[in-house]
Write a structure and sequence with these properties.
- Residues about 190-210 and about 215-220 have low confidence and may be disordered.
- A 5-stranded antiparallel beta sheet has the order 4-3-2-1-5.
- It contains 5 helices and 5 strands.
- A hairpin with a 3-residue loop joins strand 2 (about 45-50) and strand 3 (about 50-55).
- About 60% of the residues lie in helices and about 10% in strands.
Amino acid sequence: MASTGLQLLGLVLAVLGWVCGALVCAAPLWRVSAFVGGELVIAQVLWEGLWMNCLSQTTGQIQCKSYDSTLALPKSTQAARSLTVLSLLLCLVALMLGVVGAKCTHCMGDGNQASKARLARIAGVLFLVAGLGYLIPICWTASAIIKDFYDENVAAPLKRELGPALYLGWGASVLLLLGGALLHVGSSPAGGRALPVFGGAGKDNSRTGAAGEVKQQEKSFV
């Protein structure tokens, strides 16, 4: 039997991860300019994201500009765009399947509990795949930033630090993975509970067989 509590908790965590993932995808805070050796002008901070970059000044003015050409971007940025968008779309599909397959909903009627549990398990797997797909560009970008930061051949003005969007992206990935796992576990059939049923049936059959043998013995005595 499916657990309604685990299903709802998994859906809530997965939806939170999906919302956080959408914010991370849109936010231009993946890379932040690093102040190394005092060569950068501290009055300006450069923020870089998947879709635009922003220049923040100490006066409070922020100027943002979207990238002019997608093909001119680095391959890593293009791959990160594709993976994050695919993960968000996969979360949307998983959310619809999870709502339809949840035990507390009546989209498929109350007589199709096995089919609903199957849909919910599929939704959990899709959330797990989306979480892994979202985690790849986050870790990839963080690794590239750290590698360039400690590379002596990279000029100081080109060095970047980890932006706050990456930390939020890690949290979103964890929420998606945890939500998908809970949704799948909460929708899995409890195989251990079926054992007493078969055990009881075995006991009934043995009792029936014993009663039949007693009746045959009585007939033979007669």
